Amino acid sequence: MTGKVLVIILGVCAVVAAGAMYYLQVYGYYYEVEPRPGQDVVLTPVGGDEPRAIVYDGFQAIDADSSPIRYRACFVTEASPGELSEVYETMDGVSPLQTPGWFDCFDAEALGTALETGEAQAFLSIKNVHFGVDRVVAVTQDGRGYAWHVLNDCGEKAYDGTIVGEECPPRPASR
């Protein structure tokens, strides 16, 4: 009798722990980003000047304090990738990161395909938005826009344990 009770207790604990882990990964740490009109979508001009806002509408974004690369955003713009690439710094070889299924405006697979086929162009939004993390903005031919964070060279070195070196900015002090 005692063995059956222990097995039931262990089974219930396992189910509760699995449910809690799923919830925390998919929903728990995310929050909706409050839109700041005219400030949410910025791109870095060729030459590295301060990022400048572009005209956009329908901005939606999520973020999480648990990781600097959980930021995702969607918007629409009338600017074409061709027009933007004449003024703003482009990025090659970037891939969008997956997003929770409930944030349905951001389809990482479709966006990745669009970037590979040239139907979308990626741009540098903000360099070092967090230490070792850059914000990328991609715009498709039909005016849909997306933003997400990626590790830059300094971030990849810092997080894999490689010596960072002098070309990286100083790492902020821990809280």
The share of residues in extended strands comes to 25-35%
Tell me the distance between the termini: 51 Å
The overall average pLDDT, rounded, is: 88
Q: How many helices?
A: 4
Radius of gyration: 20 Å
Order of helices and strands: HEEEEEHEHEEEH
Given the C-alpha coordinates, what overall shape results?
globular
Unreliable parts: none
- Please give the share of residues in helix: 25-40%
Largest sheet: 7 strands, antiparallel
Strand arrangement across the biggest beta sheet? 1-4-5-9-8-7-6
How many beta strands in the DSSP annotation? 9
Class by helix and strand content? alpha+beta
What can you tell me about this protein's structure?
The chain is of the alpha+beta class and 175 residues long. 30% of the residues lie in helices and 28% in strands. The chain is built from four helices and nine strands; from the N terminus they run H-E-E-E-E-E-H-E-H-E-E-E-H. It has helices at residues 2-28, 81-87, 108-117, 153-160, and strands at 30-32, 42-43, 52-53, 57-64, 72-76, 90-91, 120-130, 133-140, 144-151. The protein has a seven-stranded antiparallel sheet, with helices on both faces. Strands 2-3 form a two-stranded antiparallel ribbon. The longest helix has 27 residues, at 2-28. It is globular, with a radius of gyration of 20 Å. The protein starts with a helix and ends in a 15-residue tail after the last helix. The relative contact order is 0.14.
